[in-house]
Every structure is written in structure tokens, then in C-alpha cells.
Design goal:
Elements (H helix, E strand, L loop, with lengths): L9 H4 L6 H17 L27 E4 L5 E3 L2 E3 L1 H14 L6 E4 L5 H14 L5 E3 L4
Parallel strand pairs: 1-4, 4-5
Antiparallel strand pairs: 1-2, 2-3
């Protein structure tokens, strides 16, 4: 029977990985994050203040678009389709070239409906569109 010879403890140390440098690097990165974090600025968006004093001024536009939660479209309280809306908007632009359409969009209606209406308003020749948000 052969006896195994153990030379010394150095043979066991060869198989171990020294993690001390890795831990030092992790601590340096952690400390740098701790020092830098309070210096970072959080971006805030300032919303424009309304210049209107009452809701009476909002309905003075002869072009009022409403989108219900089922994505149905009303122009001046008349139900219309996308095809009709394009022609109606062109006619309204011809009749009232300086008016700005107002859009009341339900929060449950899809964004695609908003985008389609915005595109139709641009095609009709309007340069601006007022999107009226109502508090809940």
C-alpha cells in the first residue's frame, strides 16, 4: 500500500482564490455611490400655469372635439367617424381660419385615437390643438 505524501499546506492554498482585491474594489465603488448620490439632481418638469380664470372661456371655440371612453368621436356634440371628421375639420378651418380646436379626450380612450385626431387636425391645416384636461 502506498502512502500519500503531503508536502506542506502550500498545495491547499494553490486551489483557493484570493477575493480580497475584489472586495476592496466593491467597497470603493459602493463608497463612491454613497458620496455621489446626494449630489445628483432630480429632473423636475414645471407645468405651465393656466391663464384662464374660468371654464366659461374654454367653450368659446366653435370647434370642440370630444373623445369618449369607447373611442367615439363627437364634434360640437355630433357623433362623427374619422372619414367625416376630416372633411368637417377642413370646412371648419375654411370658415374659422384663426380658431383653435379644443380636444376633450377621455382618460380611458386609446392613445391611437388621440394620435389619429391630431393627425387629422394637422391635415386640415390647423397649426395648434388645445388638449383640455379635466380633473377627476
Amino acid at each position: 500500500m502506498r502512502k500519500k505524501k503531503y508536502t506542506d499546506d502550500n498545495s491547499l492554498d494553490e486551489n483557493l482564490i484570493n477575493l480580497t482585491p475584489l472586495i476592496d474594489v466593491v467597497f470603493v465603488v459602493l463608497i463612491s455611490f454613497i458620496l455621489i448620490a446626494p449630489l445628483l439632481e432630480i429632473e423636475h418638469i414645471q407645468l405651465a400655469q393656466s391663464t384662464l380664470k374660468s371654464d366659461k372661456n374654454l367653450s368659446k371655440s366653435p370647434i370642440i372635439l370630444k373623445v369618449n371612453k369607447d373611442n367615439s368621436i363627437l364634434i360640437n356634440n355630433r357623433l362623427v367617424s374619422f372619414l367625416e371628421l376630416k372633411d368637417i375639420l377642413k370646412e371648419k378651418k375654411r370658415q374659422n381660419p384663426n380658431q383653435i380646436p379644443q380636444l376633450y379626450h377621455d382618460k380611458n380612450a386609446t392613445f391611437g385615437t388621440y394620435q389619429s385626431i391630431k393627425n387629422l387636425v394637422e391635415i386640415a391645416g390647423f397649426e395648434t390643438l388645445d388638449v383640455i384636461l379635466q380633473p377627476e
